[in-house]
Structures are given as C-alpha cells and as structure tokens.
Amino acid sequence: MTDHPTGKPTISDVARRAGVSTSLVSFVLNGRAGVAGETRARIQSAIAELGYIPNPVRRHKPQPKRTLALVLGHLSHPLSTPLVRDLQHESHRHGYSTIILLADDRIGLENTLDTLGQQRCEGIFVWLDPINLQLAHLAASRGLPVVRLHQDSGFDLGLPVMSHQPQDLVRWDYESAIYRATSQLLEIGHRRIGILTSGPPAHIRPGRIDAYRQAFHDHGITVAEQLIVQGDVTAPVGFALTAQLLDLPEPPTALIAAAALLTVGALHAITAAGLRVPEDLSVIGMGNPEAYGFGGHKLTVIPQHTEELARTAVDLMIRRIKDGPNVARRQILIDIDIEAGESVAPPRLIAAPILG
Questions:
Q1: Where is pLDDT greater, at 4 or 18?
Q2: What letter does residue 159 receive in the DSSP assignment?
C-alpha cells in the first residue's frame, strides 16, 4: 500500500516499510553519514522492494553525482544484508553513493537499466542469479562497467557476451577451500565424506565437486559417488539431502555442506537423527560461524566474510571506470582459510565382530 493518489511509492512508504522515520530515509537518500549500517541496509532494501525512485525536484539536497548500483535477485540470501552494508561503506570511501535494485523479469531488464540511467549510475555490481547475469550482459552491451560478485566458474550458462565491455569478476575461491576441507577430513581418517552442493544443473557450480574429487584422487582414495548430492540451495533441501545420506546402508562419517543454507538444513537433519557432532558425524559448513550452533559448540566452516569481498569489488570497479573497456577482463579470487571449530574429529572406530 502507498499513501500517494497516483499509487507511486513515496518516502513515507519507504519509512513505513523499513520501520524508521522519513528523516532517516532522507539521510540515506542524500548519502549522509550518521545512519547505522543495519538500518541503512534495511532502508535500501525497502527502496528496492517498493521500487521507489526519488523525485529530484522535491529533494532537499541533490543526489551525489557519483553513483554505483548493486543489483540483487532477492533479499532472502543470508549474505544480502551484510553485502549491502559493506558495499555501501566501501563505495562511500571512494566518494560514491550506492543504490540497491532488485532485478525482476516481470518489469523487464531494460526498465531496470533505464532506472540506473536516471540515477546517473557509473557502474553496477551484479550478485548471483541467472536473471542478474542476463542483466550484466545487457548492461555491458550499453557500455556500463560491470563487476560480478560471488559467481562460481561455469556460471555463464552459455549466455553470449554481447559487447566488448569486459565483465570483471570477484569471488571467493571455493574450489581451493573445498579441496582443503576434503583433504583435512581424509587426513584424519575419514573415507566416507558426503558433500552437499547446488544443482542440477551441475554446470552452475562444477568446481566444488571437481575440487572434492581431486582431493580424493590426490590421496589415492576412491570416491563413493552416492555421497555426492545436489539440490536447490535452501534449508529444507539441505535437510532432505542430509537425511538421504544418513539413510544409506553405509552413511558418511563426515559431511561438507558447500552453501550456507544447505548447512542450516544439514544441522537440523543431524539433530533430528539423534546424532552427535563430531562424535557421530564430523561437519564442515559454509557461512558465518556465529550463525550456527549445536549444543553451544562452534562449527568448523568455510567462511563468507563480505568485508573483503566488498572492498575488492569496489576497488575493481574504480579501476574499470578509470581504465575503460580496453583493459582485459579481470578475475580476482579471494582465498578462504577454513575457520576451525569443534565439529571435526577422527571417525569413530567400530569394533569388528569376534569370529570363532
């Protein structure tokens, strides 16, 4: 609902949706300091959800002339809010304001780009989702600098690049992290290691499974194919996939959940099965270690810290704006150190039956 007779969202609608005052919304729109990061992210999310476009005639102060955009596919991903906060902070350090948009194929990608043009946007960050990838290609075809975030190798889905404008990429090096996580479990005696990852289609994130397989190969151990399971990246799917593995005649002694929401579901499934971590099952998850708990213990995780991702992405964008399209596409991988917790232990030995 809006309070404007034309049905167009107003600043009051944004304030109501975000649960703040209109003055705080005005502060954010004007790029002013003094608004807490979480509050600023909530206001930006409300602006994106409502499709609010400020009327420059009614603004008390003109918008900053230098603007970057972050295009999200949805707001439900657990990294969306911290990414918005950190990207705004880093952009502000370079003299840019940041607007948040939700790519929606119902209103058309051309309309989304037209909105960016109205905001005099100098470049866009594109986060996840195939629809956002289509938007990235379309933006590049218009000559707009693009930095893609958090997209694994193989994420192009066969879409052609429709211009000579390079699309830079910054992401965490998941492949190396998965390789190290698998190797760590193998080296303490685990042989039946389950892995949960996204797909099908498998070509979206093939590198994570390839890294898992490579670790087994390098240790001279055969992979049990039934321990590789894939599905949509949601907590319910993580629960179902983990339950599937635990129901095997020979269930895994260790589990790698290669996505944050899959980790959430896996931990719930392990609890529902009455298993103890790490006594019955070792677990390495992905995401923020503070977000998980099992009996007050800390989970071993492949962390996803958005501060470095945002800092690297903004630096990459500034370089691209300065260099223009004549410099080749840049790809930066951010190394991830596994954060040790209390969820990994050697496999429990099962006594062999006494014969005779």
A1: 18
A2: P
- The reported pLDDT for the residue numbered 291 is 67
Give the CATH class of 174-302.
alpha beta
**pLDDT tens digits, residue range 39-64?**
888 888 888 888 888 765 454 454 44
pTM: 0.73
Question: pLDDT tens-digit profile of 257-275?
Answer: 998 889 999 999 999 999 9
Is residue 78 within 8 Å of 63, Cβ to Cβ? no
| Number of neighbouring beta carbons within 10 Å of residue 217 | 11
- List where CATH 3.40.50.2300 sits in the chain: 11-173+307-334, 174-302
d(CA 50, CA 13): 8
Question: Quick one: 138 exposed, middle or buried, by C-beta within 10 A (0-12, 13-18, 19+)?
Answer: middle
Helices of type H across 142-259: 174-187, 206-218, 235-246
Q: Which of 85, 89, 3 is nearest to 45 (CA)?
A: 85
**In this predicted model, what pLDDT tens digit does every residue of 102-133 receive, in sequence order?**
765 555 667 767 777 767 788 889 886 656 67
Report the C-alpha gap between 92 and 287 in whole angstroms. 26
> How large is the angle between the packed helices 37-50 and 22-29, nearest 10 degrees?
90
CATH number of 11-173+307-334: 3.40.50.2300
331-334 β-sheet, strand order? 97-102, 67-72, 121-127, 146-149, 167-172, 331-334
- Distance from C-alpha of 116 to C-alpha of 132, rounded to nearest angstrom: 14
The CA distances from residue 272 to 35, 136, 192, 238, 239, in Å, are: 42, 42, 21, 13, 9
CA proximity to 113, closest of 73, 84, 71: 71
Residue 46 is encoded by which pair of tokens? 């409300």
Residues 6+ apart with CB under 8 A from 61: 30
Average pLDDT over residues 19-40: 75
